[in-house]
TrEMBL record:
Pfam families reported for this sequence: Cupin_2 (PF07883), HTH_18 (PF12833)
Residue ranges annotated for the HTH araC/xylS-type domain, each copy included: 196-294
SMART domains for the chain: HTH_ARAC
Official protein name in the record: AraC family transcriptional regulator
Record has DNA-binding as a keyword: yes
Upper taxonomic lineage: Bacteria, Bacillati, Bacillota, Clostridia, Lachnospirales
Length: 307
């Protein structure tokens, strides 16, 4: 008996990566714009921004993803209200299927959000540079990089593009009866719903102090189940996750510039400015002052065209 192998065709192939960035911007930042001969997309992780895409001007909010085709002029400007977090990826692709993304923007789902997070994670293993420098034209590779990092970036990006095309090409209604969900899928959805509920609870209590016992009581969940859920889904214990949420909120407040460090510390329920500073440095590797100086210097130097 002889076997005939099947050559697998590619629907979309990424041939080059030009940049992968994750920016934490001030609420006053403005990028005058550029155009280039490759594709780029921008995704808003937090906050909102005004975007120019050719002759169009639009506001992108959390979860919005917009593609710029080759040679389209594009610019970005914060709206002044919220300090935005943005992911920007530029890449080369010559496939006809990319025409699907012309003049379109999308609202990402959970799968697409996870794929974007995986691309950032692999980029940190792959490139020997910061991912928040907007004018870094060449991203040097680590030597050696993590095994498979470059390939994983390409695979995750191709998966993202295929998933978007499939999801937005899907008919809005179907006459076919829905199949019963497997038990594992049902449990997965229940876990994600519980996680979403608890994260929303933590967001409500972000300016205070919560204990594991309080979280369990208010969300009707056992302690061991709670800890297992966050370890498996987030890689952190529940209290450590809550601490990271507070620090991320503090970073946004610093970039917005409406409160000083003492006011931010009090607003987020820290017992003292000193404890806040220690927790901030533990999480970010910088003190609040160092973080503020870093973000401000990047904005002032880079966006004013200094080398």
């Amino acid at each position: 008996m002889s076997y005939n192998g099947i050559h697998l065709e590619n629907s979309i192939s990424i041939d080059k990566i030009f940049s992968i960035h994750y920016f934490e911007y001030m609420n006053t930042f403005s990028f005058e714009g550029e155009s280039h001969d490759f594709w780029e997309f921008i995704c808003v992780d937090k906050g909102e921004v005004g975007v120019t895409a050719g002759s169009e001007h639009l506001i992108l909010k959390k979860g919005d993803l917009l593609f710029h085709p080759p040679n389209e002029f594009h610019a970005v400007k914060a709206t002044g209200e919220i300090a935005p977090n943005l992911m920007v990826v530029s890449f080369g692709c010559q496939d006809e299927a990319m025409q699907f993304f012309q003049k379109r923007h999308f609202k990402i789902d959970k799968t697409e959000h996870n794929l974007l997070a995986e691309i950032i994670a692999e980029a940190r293993w792959c490139f020997d540079c910061r991912l928040d420098d907007p004018y870094l034209q060449n991203m040097p590779l680590k030597n050696p990089d993590k095994f498979g990092a470059q390939q994983m970036i390409r695979l995750h990006l191709e998966h993202l593009l295929i998933h978007l095309i499939r999801r937005y090409s899907r008919p809005s209604s179907s006459t076919e009866p829905a199949s019963p969900e497997p038990l594992k899928s049902t449990k997965e959805k229940n876990d994600m719903e519980t996680l979403r509920q608890i994260i929303e609870y933590l967001e409500v209590h972000l300016n205070g102090h919560v204990t594991i016992e309080q979280i369990c009581r208010d969300n009707i969940i056992g302690r061991s189940q709670l800890q297992k859920l966050f370890k498996e889904r987030c890689g952190l214990g529940i209290i450590e996750y809550f601490s990271h949420m507070k620090i991320n909120a503090a970073k946004e407040m610093i970039r917005t510039g409406r409160m000083n460090f003492t006011q931010i510390s009090e607003h987020l329920g820290y017992t003292s400015i000193h404890y806040f500073s220690r927790q901030f440095k533990k999480t970010t590797g910088m003190t609040p002052s160092e973080y503020a100086s870093s973000i401000k210097a990047m904005a002032e130097a880079r966006f004013n065209g200094e080398p």
